Structure formats: structure tokens, C-alpha cells
Amino acid sequence: MNNTQSNSRCHLLLVCLTLSLWLGVAWSRPTVGPPSIKLKSTISNIAVLQLVTVDDQGQLHFKRIQDLHNEAAAAVKIMASPELAQALQSQQNYVVGYMAWQTDRFSKEVRPRPGGPVLMNLPGAEPALWASNPQLEALLAMPEAQSLASGPEVLELIQAGLSSDDPQAKHFFVVELVTRRAHFEQAAVQQQLKALITDPNTQWSSKQFILAFGGLNEQQLRSDWFCRMASDTLNLASTQVDQQGQDASYLSQLLDHLKHCATEAFPVNLARWVTGTHTGLAEAAIGALREQDLDQAIDAVEAGLTQGLLGAHNRQVLNNYLKRLYQEQRSKQKTQ
User: Which one, of 255, 246, 189, 236, lies nearest residue 217 by Cα?
Assistant: First the structure.
């Protein structure tokens, strides 16, 4: 793949990760599972579409190249954000999962969506639009019964897909692997999940999914390699985290798992997270400090509150937490 294509795909990923916040995307079968299965319903379409043009209203005009699930129209128009529209390239093929129909909740009548087709959005397909990818297309086109069986041919496609240098496609296959528990006893799968979560090229949202949905077993979570990775990340990552961003979820998972790690062997400077921009991470760091040493946690919060440049909401959160810590300290002193 040349640099232009690589940069275009990385740009596409960044745009896709923010779409669900404000673009009218359709959630399909919201429970977590393999996206290649969850995207399929009687009223959804998955197809390889070629982008013809983008009109002045931001609608993407596609023509059908190949159906992967249900029969798409010969021409499909989908509304998109300006950012997504700019990330795509005309005359290029994309794998697209969309909803052109809706079912009335009372009459159960199926009718066209009044606003036109919309992209689907669920874990691993955020949204359901990828640059053309042979493994992804093969998995989406696979009959549902065969896919549900999660046989060796499914695992082979997933493992091949995980080598993609397209982050959007790679995330799809990470979710596929983590949500197919049938393969988890295999040493090769466990090793692959370790490689993914320690790989600096794996995006944080994929790493967070691995942690949040049981991609690592108890032995791995207590291992030296995991504790080293967690401590290195928490010691080197910026504490200036967007309050509305996705990075916080991964960092919060790492903070939570510190309780399994020996603090002497894998020390983490938790105090610096107390005054970070994300209040949830500040509270998680205080909680981790409290588990280690209550007095140390109080000292860190008191020191944080002396900083002049601290947002009003952050200062309020620290003050409230400090009151609870003082209360706990007094209760302990009474029982001694």
C-alpha cells in the first residue's frame, strides 16, 4: 500500500470513530458480538459499493458492485458528515453496511426510512464503512450458520485480517476475535491477543475492547508483561485527556488492573493523574492510590488542590473526594 492510501485510511478511521456522536447512524442488534453477524438482519444491507460522487448536501452517491448480505439497490445514497465525505475517494470501492428500511414497532410494517439510508453502527463497525478488504468481504458474505459455527476457516480469515495496516479493518477483526470464545483455549489465539495489546500500532479503542470484554485471561492480566505494558503506558501517556474522548476508557481499564500488579516492580506515578483534565481518570487514580495507602491518597489530592491552574469542575471533584478520604481516615483512627 502506498503512503497516500495509508494516510487516507488512517484519516478515515479517525473520522469514523467520531461519527456516532452526532451523525444519524443506525444501531443494529446492539448486544456485543461478532460484527459480521450482528450487522445482518432482514432489513439491513451489506455490499461492496463504489463511491461515484459526493453532492453539495453531503450525500454519498454509490453504485453497487457486489452484494454481501441482502440485495442492495443499483444506486445508493447515504447522508454523511463533511469529515467522512472528505476522507473518502471517488471511484474507490468500500464495504458498506446500511439500513434503508425500518420496522414500525406497533404494526411491524416494513417501510423505507423517511430520511433515506443510514450507516449502521455497532462495536467493530463504528460506523459500518471500510476500504475494500478481501478477508472482511469474505467474512461478511459467509452464510450465517457457517459463521456462527466459528470453524477453522473463520479463524483463518480473522487472523489474516488482523495483519491489515488499515486501523478500521483491524478493529473489526479484533472485535471478531474477542467475541468468538470458541477459539480462546488455543495458545496461538492467546499469543495473538497478547501481541495485539502490546503492539504500539494497535489503536487504543481496540486494546480497550480486548480488556473490557475478557480478551485476556486472569493469568495474562497478572503477568509481568501486562503489568509492564500498563505501567509504561500510564507513566508516559499525557494526562491531558479529552473529557468526551475515547482514550479515557482504555486508561481507566489500565488503572483498574493495577491492583493485580506489584507496585515495587512496576511503579506508576498515579499522583500526576489526580490533576489531569479527565475527572473520571482522576477519581480512578485516587482510588488506586487509596488501595495502596490511604494517607498517600490524601496527600496526593491535597497537593493537587494547591495547583493554581485547575478547572472548577475538577477542583470540585477533588474536594468532594477529599472529604470522603478524610471521613475514612477518621473512621480508621477511631477503631485503632
Answer: 189
* The pLDDT of residue 29: 42
Going by their DSSP bridges, the two strands 44-54 and 75-79 should be labelled as: unpaired
3-state secondary structure of 130: strand
Q: What is the pLDDT of residue 194?
A: 97
- Cα 292 to Cα 286: distance, rounded to the nearest angstrom: 10
Cell of 268: 506508576
AA identity, residue 225: W
Give mean pLDDT in consecutive 10-residue pieces for the chain, a chain of 336 residues.
46 43 41 92 96 91 98 94 88 97 87 91 94 97 95 96 95 97 92 96 95 94 97 96 87 93 94 94 95 94 90 94 94 84
CA gap 229, 239 in Å, rounded: 17
3-state secondary structure of 94: strand
Instruction: Determine how β-strand 93-99 pairs with β-strand 75-79.
Output: unpaired
Q: Give the Cα separation of 316 and 318 in Å (integer).
A: 5
Q: Encode 21-60: b = buried (16+ Cβ within 10 Å), e = exposed.
A: eebebbebeeebbbbbbbbbeeebbbbbbbbeebeeebbb
**What span, in angstroms and rounded, lies between the C-alpha atoms of 240 and 252?**
14
The pLDDT value recorded for residue 173 is 98
CA distance 118 to 29: 15
Q: Is the dihedral of CA 8, 9, 10, 12 positive or negative?
A: positive
82: which 3 cell numbers? 463533511
